[in-house]
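Please think about what follows:
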Amino acid sequence: MSLSASQHSFHIPVICRGYTVVTPVKVAKFGISSVVSVMDDHLLEDMRRLYYRKNQLEYIEIKSDSMDSRSLRITAYLDLINQLVTNQVDYLK
């Protein structure tokens, strides 16, 4: 499906950076596509910590002094979002 042929007829407003990093967790289970802002890797790491604790998972921090910490944080957050959304969809099924 191309972007121009989207079935969505509404728009989710973006209020700030923090809002866009959690949108997929909130709406993807309903089949609504969204985007994630990956500009601030420190914010993503904070959100990853929050979601790990909320879901009672063991959180291991990716420290700023780690080699290539920015890409590791972004990848870890996107992997977590993927897992959370997959779990939500499986639960709905």
